[in-house]
Amino acid sequence: MTKKQRKIIRAVLELGFFCLLLSACAAKTVLDDLDRFAGSDTGAYGQAGMTAAQQAAALLPKKQIRVGFVQVGHESDWRIAATKSGKQAFSEENGYDLHFVDADNDPKVQVEAVRRFIKERMDYIVIDPILTTGWTAVLKEAYHAKIPVILLDRTIDCKDQYYAAWFGSDFVREGEWAGEWLQNYLKKQGRDQETIHIVTINGTQGASAQIGRTQGFAQYVEKNANWKLLAQECGDFTESGGKAVMERYLQTYERIDVVVCQNDNEAFGACAALDEAGVAYGVDAENDGGVILISFDATRAGLEAVLDGKIHADFECNPLSPPYAAEAIRRLEAGEVLTEKDYYLPEDCFTADEEPMTLMIDFTPKQMVTVTKELLEDREY
Ligand code: GYE
User: Fold this and answer.
1) What is the distance between the alpha carbons of residues 353 and 368, in angstroms, rounded to a whole number?
2) Contact partners, residue 223, CB within 8 Å, separation at least 6
């Protein structure tokens, strides 16, 4: 081979290598430029359809989606079910790199976690907010960093442009269901003229679940002149909190007819306090003046207590919102636009009554569901 020939071969090889390098760079650019929200001057959520870059990226091997998820804590059975659902929905198998933070009921920890997620450039941020307040500044930061935020469960006071979607429950409606049930139940018992002494054990003060359930039930307190709301203390959605509040109530009030617990764990705490004080409660004791217990969440343990006749009625709050968030992310990744901001999850109202009543609110009937052993076996949480 002559010198000239070798030179030509080297030039061809170099050119080939250069072309390879170029195409690798091009692929990288496609990935880097895969700004899901490119061209959207309305912030993180304004784009419709798939761009050429997105279509090209769809052909490349899938990258893991980095999700920062800050959870309220681990205060209740409901919360444990919600966390389990989140870890499953955002598992490695499903293509996620999940960064999970348990805020242990500390709002400051939640905001700090979100700031860290922004700094670490997560692809998405998922928040179950402890409180409704304190979110605007940090959500603005996420918005300007073009990181979509998905809210689960509790709501926040913040312009809806700062989050992509919310999946959760209608807490006011849950409170109304409880009120409607009690009103009908007392009527059935012929107690609609009797003075009914009610205490409530509220959830974490300032959480939208607490605010909504309180508001919904209050409408029925107003409507029923014979209901006397004695006290509304905070049990922080925990069993120990519920027990401590119930103990105080038992020391303070001579007569209590109804205890409204804003979640199942508080109800378990209330049962423990009633047991210790030797006060009768539950379906069997009721005709002898026993206390009527109402609860929210309808977790497995809660429904077992309904089946045992300890809790009269339990109003479900669905903890399985994370799969909805994962579906929202799938759609955003595909360049689709979410048609709604706020999505309500399906939920039921449970009773041990074999002839469950139909609750009617705003001309919308809600048929209650009787708890059975079979029903419990089929439930996910
Ligand atoms: O009722 C309670 C939990 O935010 C709806 O928080 C949720 C509430 C739920 O700890 O058990």
Assistant:
1) 9
2) 179, 183
Cα(261)–Cα(191) distance, integer angstroms: 21
Bridge partners (DSSP) listed for residue 100: 69
The stretches of the chain forming alpha helices (DSSP H) are: 3-32, 52-59, 77-89, 107-119, 136-144, 171-188, 208-223, 239-252, 264-277, 300-307, 322-333, 373-378
- Indicate the top mutation candidate among 201, 317, 320, 345 to test ligand 1's pocket, ranked by most ligand atoms within 8 A of CB: 317
Residue nearest to atom 5 of ligand 1 (CA): 209
Burial of 34 per CB tally in 10 Å (0-12, 13-18, 19+) = middle
CB of 237 closer than 6 angstroms to any ligand 1 atom? yes
Ligand 1: nearest atom to the Cα of 317:
5
Per-residue DSSP letter, 310: S
Give the global pTM.
Answer: 0.84
Q: Give the pLDDT confidence of 246-288 residue by residue, as tens digits.
A: 999 999 999 999 999 999 999 999 999 999 999 999 998 877 7
Ligand 1 contacts CB of residue 297 (under 6 A): yes
> Ligand 1 pocket, 47 CB below 6 A?
no
**Distance of CA 199 from the midpoint of ligand 1 (Å):** 19
